[in-house]
Write a structure and sequence with these properties.
Helix content: 25-40%
Order of helices and strands: HEEEEEEEHH
Number of helices: 3
Distance between the termini: 32 Å
Oligomer: single chain
């Protein structure tokens, strides 16, 4: 296993739509293991493949660090089938370090995908799991949580980011 480089905003790979995984092979298993190690090392609870520069439709989620009882989830080619309700909560992202903001998302969702063995997985989720699934699937579709902010909040983030980038040069 190896630690992978987590791509940071505004790197282009974060805006790219990922491609479906067509063959679950040893390379995909190695990628999953490396993503898990990277996510745990960074203190995250979810990680999408394009966050480590790989344009595959694959994500990993482990909410045990957030004291949730949900087991480790490896999702290949996930799709949100149904959404209901609206909830607003604060989010952060390993690819957008040092910034958190309230984001509106569906309160409950139904997701289909495959696990690492290629078996169909169906997940009915609410609360934190629903939020994290939507966040990671957004990544796979080329969206960051900051793309879901109001225009004023998004402009504020961009100004903060630009100021921080100039300061760090």
């Amino acid at each position: 296993m190896a630690l992978l480089d987590i791509k940071k905003y505004p790197e282009n790979v974060l805006k790219a739509k990922t491609l479906p995984v067509t063959d679950i092979n040893v390379d995909i298993q190695h990628l999953v293991n490396d993503m898990l190690e990277t996510m745990y090392d960074a203190g995250g609870i979810g990680l999408a493949a394009n966050q480590v520069g790989i344009l595959k439709r694959l994500c990993v989620i482990d909410l045990r660090a957030a004291n949730e009882q949900t087991p480790l989830i490896v999702l290949i080619n996930p799709e949100i089938i149904e959404k209901t309700g609206i909830a607003e909560a604060e989010e952060g992202c390993l690819s957008v370090p040092d910034y958190r903001a309230k984001v509106r998302r569906a309160e409950q969702i139904f997701v289909k995908g495959m696990d690492i063995t290629g078996r169909l997985v169906e997940i009915e989720a609410k609360d934190l799991l629903a939020r994290v699934l939507q966040h990671e699937i957004d990544h796979l579709d080329g969206f960051l949580f900051i793309d879901r902010l109001t225009p004023i909040k998004k402009d504020f983030f961009k100004k903060q980011h630009k100021k921080k980038s100039v300061k760090n040069r």
